[in-house]
Amino acid sequence: MSGALERVRRLCLSLPEVTERPSHGSPTWFVRDRRRRITGAEGLVFAATLVLLAVSGGLFLALLAMFWTGVAWEAAFVQKLTWIQYDSPPGMKGRMLGLFFAGYLAALSIGALVIGAAFDAVGIKDSLLICAGCVAAFALWSIWDAKHPITEPPERAPNGS
């Protein structure tokens, strides 16, 4: 078994941009941390469904848009929970999930207040289009950010310059 694992490891690590990290106690190989890009794609789908909801003229189209908006929202939500469980140290998972849910519920409450005020101020259609623009901007930033990982700053010279 060890010989087969070493062959797979050698093969995977010979590919460009592949890294190895443990996942659920087993060796796992990743290419450019691909899981972060999914968030951007889901965000773009979510933004598109908000636009569809804003411009829908009939009940059927509005129901279809709401269904796909819910699917995109739920996919992103479940993905975030999975990432927290995967990325958190074992002794911190419960705390991290608690913080996530506290932030999530607070954001829902504050967001409901803000979007309700926006509906009253500029109307439902324009508010949904503004939300779609914000979600699309965040999704595009997420995609850009996934391609530009944070790197360590260069070492300073001994004289402090």
Number of strands: 2
Give the helix proportion (percent range): over 70%
Shape: elongated
Sheet with the most strands?
Answer: 2 strands, antiparallel
Order of helices and strands: HEEHHHH
Compute the average pLDDT.
79
Provide the spatial order of strands within the biggest beta sheet.
1-2
Distance from first to last alpha carbon: 53 Å
Which strand-content bin applies to the residues?
5-15%
Unreliable spans = none
Task: Based on the model shown, name its key terms.
single chain; 161 residues; mainly alpha; two-stranded antiparallel ribbon; 2 strands; 72% helix; 7% strand
Description:
Helix 2 runs antiparallel to helix 3 (59-87), helix 2 (35-55) runs antiparallel to helix 5 (124-147) and helix 4 packs antiparallel against helix 5 (124-147). By secondary structure, this protein is mostly helical. A two-stranded antiparallel sheet has the order 1-2. The model has no long low-confidence stretch (mean pLDDT 79). The protein is built from 5 helices and 2 strands. The radius of gyration is 21 Å and the shape is elongated. The longest helix has 30 residues, at 93-122. The chain has helices spanning 2-13, 35-55, 59-87, 93-122, 124-147; strands at 18-23, 26-31.
